[in-house]
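Problem: given the chain below (196 residues), write out its structure.
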Amino acid sequence: EIQVTINPAGDPVLDADFGYDWIGSIGDFAWYDKDGDTVQDGPTDPLLCDNSNPTHECGAPLATVVLYGDTNGDGVYQSGEPILAVQETSDGNTDVDGDGTIDPIGYYRFTDLPPGAYVVEVSEQEVAAPDSSPNAGQNGTMIATTGTQVGVVLESTGDPADMQRTDIDWGFKEAAYLAGNLFHDVNANGILDTSE
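Solution.
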């Protein structure tokens, strides 16, 4: 609290400074949704999770997550809406939220956000295939099972919980890959002949 006295001449007071700290945060987790059911089946303890195990749905490291200002409040990113922050999910060796602790693989959090409308978007292309995949470590093979954008509104209602969204999670499953030739099988023998 500061007391300010305005003199009768109405001179401006330019030294009544104060700081503020927004408590808003958005985030949580990106994981390998190996069965594609949009539920992180676990194990939920990151210390017990092993990405080389085909049944473990562990954190997805280094997924790119973008926070946009949702200027029109429709919950969908539109061209021209500002990028407010970009973050990669933790690789298990980084402190992504700046709280001084190493975060588990797949964790992310945008902090110090004011009340407002946001869009959170994740990119599928930077998510490497899990260790249990024949394409382990390769980018461009994963698809999001939970969608790639979520609209979020943080409200200053007096309840701090209204400024915290820690349920914006992203699941990724390896996409199917089909390769070959499409041809008109004139003689119906099931073989691509030189004349077809």
